UniProtKB/TrEMBL annotation:
Gene3D superfamilies: 3.40.50.12230
Segments forming domain Formyl transferase N-terminal: 1-179
Catalytic activity of the protein: L-methionyl-tRNA(fMet) + (6R)-10-formyltetrahydrofolate = N-formyl-L-methionyl-tRNA(fMet) + (6S)-5,6,7,8-tetrahydrofolate + H(+)
EC class name: transferase
Binding site for (6S)-5,6,7,8-tetrahydrofolate: 109-112
Identification of the protein by name: Methionyl-tRNA formyltransferase
Family, similarity comment: Belongs to the Fmt family.
Cited function: Attaches a formyl group to the free amino group of methionyl-tRNA(fMet). The formyl group appears to play a dual role in the initiator identity of N-formylmethionyl-tRNA by promoting its recognition by IF2 and preventing the misappropriation of this tRNA by the elongation apparatus.
Keywords tagged on the record: Protein biosynthesis, Transferase
Pfam families with a match to the protein in the record: Formyl_trans_C, Formyl_trans_N
Entries under InterPro entries matching the protein: Fmt, Formyl_trans_C, Formyl_transf_N, Formyl_transf_N_sf, Formyl_transferase-like_C_sf, GART_AS, Met-tRNA-FMT_C, Met-tRNA-FMT_N
Domain Formyl transferase C-terminal: 204-301
A GO cellular component annotation in the UniProt record: cytosol
Amino acid sequence: MRIVFMGTPDFAVSSLEAILDAGHTVELVVTQPDRPKGRKKTLTPPPVKEAALLRGLPVEQPERLRGSETVARIAELKPDLIVTAAYGQILPKAVLDVPRLGCINVHGSLLPSYRGGAPIQRAIINGETVTGVTIMYMAVGLDTGDMISVVEVPISDTDTSGTLFEKLTAAGAKLLSETLPAIEAETVKATPQNNDEATYAPNLTRDDERIDWSRPARSIYNQVRGLSPMAGGFTIWNGEPFKVWGCTAVKRGASAAEPGTVLAVSDDGILVQTGEDALLLTVIQPAGKKAMNAAEWLKGARMTPGSAFGAGGEA
C-alpha cells in the first residue's frame, strides 16, 4: 500500500517502522514542528521526524494541519491509507476523505475508555491495572471511530508512564503489523464504539502535577508514577516548588497529624502524612537542584518531623 504516516513521539516511531518493515511505501510523514527542549531550550525535532529522515522519507511539519499546504500535498499523493499514531492534532474532513482505504489510528488505550491525548499517563494516575492499544478508523471527533483490532496490556504496580509507553509502543507496532493485511485485503470487520461507555484522557496540565496531601497515599503514588519520567508531582516547601519523582505508599493506622506533615526523616526518605496512610518520598528535586535521592538531600537539609509541605502559596 501507499501510505501517509502521521505521528510525533517515540510511541509512534515503532508503528512507522512496522509499516516500512511490512513492505509498504510511506509517501509522506507528517509530524509536529521542532520544539524547544531542556533548560537551554534547544530546538529539537520530534522522534518521528528523526526516524523518518534516517529512512530517507519526506517530512512535513505544519504548525496547524487544517488549512495548511500539507492538506493539498496529501490530496495530490492520493495514498491508499493514512495511518496516525499520537500525531497531536485532529485530522480535518478534507484529509479523512482522501485515502480509498480510509484513515486509521493507533491509540494507546482500550477504547472507548481514555479517548484523548494522555491515555497512558491517566490510566496509571487513575490506578488502572490493565490498558492496551486499539486500532480504529478515524472519524470527525476525538477518537470516536469504529474499532478494527485491540490488544490488552497489563499495568504492573511499579509501572511508570515511561515503562508503560515502552510496553504499548511494542504492542501497538505488533498489532498494526497484524492488522494491515486485512485492511489491504478490505476484509476488516470493524466494531462501533459504545459512546455511553466513553471516558476521556485530556492532555496533562500543571494542576495535574500538584500534590494534594489530603488524598490517600496510594492515589498520590499513582499520580507520581503516572507523571514520571516527564514531569513528576510537586508540592511546596519553604515557599518554593519541591518535586517528587519517586515514592512509596506506606500503610499506617489512624493519625492526628495533618496531611502534608513530615512524620519522619531517615535514610529511607521522607515520610509524609496523607489523607489516608503515609507516603515515603524517595526521589525528590528541591527548587534549583537536580533530582536526587531524598536521603542524600536530607544530609544537608533542615527538615524535621512536624514540619509541613504545602504551605507558602502557589508555585
